[in-house]
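User: Batch of two.

Assistant: Item 1 of 2:
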Amino acid sequence: MSEYIPSPMDWVAKQVELYEGSGGTAGLTLRDTGLPVIIVTNRGWKTGAIRKTPVMRVADGRNYILVASKGGAPEHPVWYHNLKADPNVEIRDKTELYQMRVREVDDPAERQRLWTLAVEAFPPYQDYQAKTDRVIPVFVAEPVE
């Protein structure tokens, strides 16, 4: 089993600690937005270490949509590279844990449908896309059967 390395971003590390430490009963929203998040556990592409990231909760049936927005920054978040290197993740949604496999959505029609769902769940995604030149990646996490 690999070592867990908390995020170097203090608020992220604290949110993951609160969310997981409570068994999924506290720390369930993004800061002061009141909007729900899930915790995505993945493997670091450089270190091989276990990484945990709060991501906006956007569900599509049994699947989750993961938007690599990084607030509209010019570069992808580190977790984007982690998911590209190893698509096997664990998602904690409140008290439930799911083993899932992610894939980046390339099909334009599928991406648009999922992007629309993501923006409905978290409207700032639209502003993030407007302020960056990169196309913000969209992943779909699907249950491992």
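Item 2 of 2:
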Amino acid sequence: MRRRTLITSPLSWQMAAAPVAPPLIPVLAERGGTQIKAPQATILVDSREQIPFSFSRFRGWFSAIDKKALRLGDYSVRGLEDCCVVERKDLNDLIQSFTVGRAQFLQRLRLMSSCRHRLLVITSSLSQVKSPYTHSGANPNRILQSLIAVLGGLGVPFITTETHELGEEVVASYLYQVHLYAWLEANDYGRFLADNDL
């Protein structure tokens, strides 16, 4: 007698990636059920960024998107440049940064580690980071372990996104929320979005 499996093993599940459109506004702040009207931030994009996020889909989230040479990172928020830094890497740039450009990249990451809000965004999936590279002889294990060392040793968190577009949304959301939390705190609302919540 054959046993019949009622539920397929999670190991055999496959997700069909079909990201939904971004929200009109990522989050709102409220106190006692009343929305707090916070001013919109200005996103700063480093003028030297090779393939910058345009943020055109998120214009309603920000008052402006300006290009300028940033001291550190690729993206920040006007007025928070000294404490908010986002560095973006595609897979080729990540490999290059952890091999031939390692010393300079690690120095930038050390500087980032002193910022309160810091994020390394990789516009590639983690499985691609861990897979053999057709364009490089670099060892995927070395690249992944370098990322983990950056997280564990320097305290710089990283996130991977499958596409440039998802990376753009993550960075837009992150910058929006960093600004909102900073504004709430500076205006004596406390560092939370809603009562008994984040």
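The CA atoms of residues 20 and 33 lie 27 Å apart.
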